[in-house]
Design a protein that fits this description.
Helix content is 23%, strand content 22%. The chain has 60 residues and is an alpha+beta fold.
């Protein structure tokens, strides 16, 4: 059980939605932060897109 950020009462996991909590008193619903699944390919992917965009004009 966690604590509600609005009223401070107890919060329970929502049985119908994963990573979602709801307050038993004020009915506030919020999601828990997700773990980052970045495997490190993004720093290489962005420069590759930039090179592709720059070379696009040469292919026309």
């Amino acid at each position: 059980m966690q604590e509600c950020p609005r009223c401070g009462d107890t919060a329970a996991p929502d049985p119908e939605h994963a990573n979602t909590l709801w307050c038993l008193t004020c009915w506030l619903v919020w999601t828990l932060p997700h773990d980052s699944l970045c495997n490190g390919s993004l720093p290489r992917f962005a420069p590759a897109l930039r090179v592709l965009r720059e070379s696009r004009g040469l292919n026309r």
